[in-house]
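Deliverable D2.4 — example input (structure tokens):
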């Protein structure tokens, strides 16, 4: 379900923040499956009906909390070079923020609830892609990325790695992964396409 609030009293900002914080704390301690609207309300010190008045499901509460957290801890820097911007953005993206349970829980919910899947994609996933696209677009404008480089594919490479490791938990996340990925992307955009450049030239005179 998506966040469809009906008419009623305006939300108290203090109560809203209490609910969002309570949801994240409960989720971190008990996991997404054990999270309930009643538990969130009790921890936040508000009535359950107050929570339902503002959000239609626990997934909507967690999504709003996640969006606010992501906007604070993973911003699109503008340090003037692609290398500096990618390093700052990707180390922040891959840093362990205690959000693994949040992200995997919401992804699982999105697979079960098509309506929520649209909200998760449009409000969170696409906004994260847009932040990275902004970095790549600025680099292209500075001439650091060739104009024919597929920037959407680069973005898929970044978030494909992130989600693959989140879901399988077979390899670590963390800042070193972000830095390693920065180096790989920089080499990828600076390498000549296959079949061009020095690598394609004959090694000796033609006979």
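Example output (designed residues):
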């Amino acid at each position: 379900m998506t966040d469809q609030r009906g008419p009623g009293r305006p939300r108290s900002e203090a109560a809203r923040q209490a609910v969002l914080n309570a949801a994240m704390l409960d989720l971190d301690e008990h996991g997404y499956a054990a999270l309930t609207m009643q538990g969130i309300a009790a921890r936040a010190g508000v009535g359950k009906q107050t929570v339902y008045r503002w959000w239609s499901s626990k997934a909507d509460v967690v999504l709003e909390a996640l969006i606010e957290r992501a906007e604070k801890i993973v911003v699109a820097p503008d340090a003037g070079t692609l290398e500096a911007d990618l390093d700052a953005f990707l180390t922040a993206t891959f840093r362990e923020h205690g959000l693994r349970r949040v992200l995997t829980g919401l992804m699982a919910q999105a697979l079960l609830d098509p309506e929520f899947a649209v909200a998760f994609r449009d409000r969170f996933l696409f906004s994260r892609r847009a932040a990275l696209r902004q970095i790549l677009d600025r680099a292209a404008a500075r001439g650091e990325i060739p104009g024919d480089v597929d920037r959407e594919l680069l973005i898929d490479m970044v978030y494909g790695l992130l989600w693959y490791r989140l879901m399988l938990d077979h390899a670590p996340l963390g800042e070193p992964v972000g830095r390693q990925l920065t180096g790989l992307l920089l080499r990828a955009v600076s390498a000549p396409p296959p079949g061009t450049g020095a690598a394609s030239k004959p090694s000796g005179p033609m006979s």
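Residues 13-61 form a domain with the Arc Repressor Mutant, subunit A fold (CATH 1.10.10.60).
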